[in-house]
Amino acid sequence: MTHEEHHAAKTLGIGKAIAVLTSGGDAQGMNAAVRAVVRVGIFTGARVFFVHEGYQGLVDGGDNIKEATWESVSMMLQLGGTVIGSARCKDFREREGRLRAAYNLVKRGITNLCVIGGDGSLTGADTFRSEWSDLLGDLQKAGKITDEEATKSSYLNIVGLVGSIDNDFCGTDMTIGTDSALHRIMEIVDAITTTAQSHQRTFVLEVMGRHCGYLALVTSLSCGADWVFIPECPPDDDWEEHLCRRLSETRTRGSRLNIIIVAEGAIDKNGKPITSEDIKNLVVKRLGYDTRVTVLGHVQRGGTPSAFDRILGSRMGVEAVMALLEGTPDTPACVVSLSGNQAVRLPLMECVQVTKDVTKAMGEKKFDEALKLRGRSFMNNWEVYKLLAHVRPPVSKSGSHTVAVMNVGAPAAGMNAAVRSTVRIGLIQGNRVLVVHDGFEGLAKGQIEEAGWSYVGGWTGQGGSKLGTKRTLPKKSFEQISANITKFNIQGLVIIGGFEAYTGGLELMEGRKQFDELCIPFVVIPATVSNNVPGSDFSVGADTALNTICTTCDRIKQSAAGTKRRVFIIETMGGYCGYLATMAGLAAGADAAYIFEEPFTIRDLQANVEHLVQKMKTTVKRGLVLRNEKCNENYTTDFIFNLYSEEGKGIFDSRKNVLGHMQQGGSPTPFDRNFATKMGAKAMNWMSGKIKESYRNGRIFANTPDSGCVLGMRKRALLFQPVTELQDQTDFEHRIPKEQWWLKLRPILKILAKYEIDLDTSDHAHLEHITRKRSGEAAV
């Protein structure tokens, strides 16, 4: 990247004006997107305008369109809904309304529009753009605008961000608000589970999502529901029989409750709605179970946005500004979206078209096609759900293999969900599944028992590690481990854990030279709050920790806002890995995040203090600074606190807070439950194949590099990577991967905190086409 390009970002917006509006149903995280659009727009030198009340404000003009300032978006990040208001607008659907909207924009010299909303809102934006020159012509004829004004505003750039809790927009893995809606749903499901167990009840829960079953599907995976009804996959004709059989089977296995999730748009094969009341009446009539219905309603749209949605909103906001300012009359209106963890730009109308195709396919009862059009991520969810909920484990274990599951390292939320799906998929495949307590130590001491189906019942929502976990590595107890592998006839190992699980895997590979018993396939599922396992962009448990840190930061910011002129220094976990500090910094709106991967000097500390001194002169009289626990051995949290206290004398007070082990606790977030469940299923499927492949002369002998892997998410795909191949990519001294994708997000953190830095625009999303993307991607 050249020096000239660096400065281009800072001057990209000079002389340009951007308007931002939120439209349609509100979604948590919209405010994060608005804040990012405003701040990055101002950073590039552009003027940015709020349009209040969605398209209605665009049509009505006047005070509805106001210029935004840096400070006007402060404290917005943690608020749900949309601060600038949203409205369903009839006027904009008529050409007359769009004419007034065009007039309001031209008069203010605004030619860039960022629309945050669902598919309806984005379609409206595209229509507006295609009519733009005709609208200007009419305004000129009527003498409402001058020729000069018309020339200045000759074309309109439009970029859309999808804000919708339904996740019903094709082309995006996640829409802004979906993750937060799942948080609300899971909080309620967890609460209902406890009361249902007390009374041995059946609960029917109805969730939102219009014609899209995403929320219902992920909820059922995340809570281990007995059944889910979604519009895309209507049940077979004899579903009533099947459902009742399924519910009574769950009860006979010793469960005290049943949970059925219904999407509000659920239908049967003939397109007839299946309502939650229908299901309740069926269960009561046929089985006589005490059954209750809970319709979740608008609570799903409420509450504070999750860490994921804040980061998603912020990243998409930055990308939207870049897409607008780089736009020409020839670039099609685009949608900025997320694929895996990559920001991508997609042509708006292609996405709208595919989204419409889904509705059409469902209308024509072509359900398989509708499912395919929803994309890989949706289909993967459906496949795993069907396996876990509808397949009966075989009774006989003849010809089966024995696979052992264990946890290694520090506890992380979601470990239990991974164990549960590994055990159950193993049983469904007809295998014998063993669980090992206390990691490699338990494997050496023989703390091993067989797990049946109900052994892992209700584990999905439980935090920590129920099997027990230790940091002990296997090397020094190879003899005992080998003896137990033989004694229990273990033919494959699923290791769920953090950096020690990975280094333990490397030791097992090394040990194969001396011990034949260690020549069995193994797979590592990354599970650690630090997110520092090589070979994976995400690890199970990191999302939960991030949300915990976020909630704490929100409370601390609130306290600081009340007392004024106060700066908080917060220490996060993560070892040497700065993932938690950086991502929490983005999600909580921190002024700085000190991490090991980006070395800092006393001059940087000085610049940060100076920056806060300047900030105290504005209306935003508080500061938040995050420090990763091992970012620097000499500049400790105490040192930084003392420095800030001394330098801030008379200007601001400093306080410090070490978050500690609360970051490893808590109930796993929907993301971690779902991610862990899918990783467990994927690992067990791989394992069965590998064991069959390694079967020689009546025993298992696996001695190739690809029989010891890390299962990780890389950009857009779930990949199995041999642990030995990952060695070169690892900094063992600091227990981190040498390259980490999230470091590219650090400039965004600094720009949003008002630092005059260079925004590296080299890693920008280019326009892709949705049709090609559908077939080639693999999403989790």
Automatic annotation (TrEMBL):
Localization: Cytoplasm
User: One Pfam annotation, family name?
Assistant: PFK
Write down the SUPFAM superfamilies for this protein, in alphabetical order: Phosphofructokinase
Per the record, the pathway is: Carbohydrate degradation; glycolysis; D-glyceraldehyde 3-phosphate and glycerone phosphate from D-glucose: step 3/4
Necessary cofactors: Mg(2+)
Signal peptide location: none
Q: Which GO terms describe its cellular component?
A: 6-phosphofructokinase complex; membrane
- Catalytic residues, chain numbering: 166 (proton acceptor)
Recount the known activity regulation.
Allosterically activated by ADP, AMP, or fructose 2,6-bisphosphate, and allosterically inhibited by ATP or citrate.
Q: Where is this region: N-terminal catalytic PFK domain 1?
A: 1-390
Q: Does the keyword Transmembrane helix apply?
A: no
Q: Which InterPro entries does the entry link to? A: 6-Pfructokinase_euk (IPR009161), ATP_PFK (IPR022953), PFK_vert-type (IPR041914), Phosphofructokinase_CS (IPR015912), Phosphofructokinase_dom (IPR000023), PKF_sf (IPR035966)
Q: Which family does it belong to?
A: Belongs to the phosphofructokinase type A (PFKA) family. ATP-dependent PFK group I subfamily. Eukaryotic two domain clade "E" sub-subfamily.
Annotated protein name in UniProt: ATP-dependent 6-phosphofructokinase
State which gene encodes it: PFKM
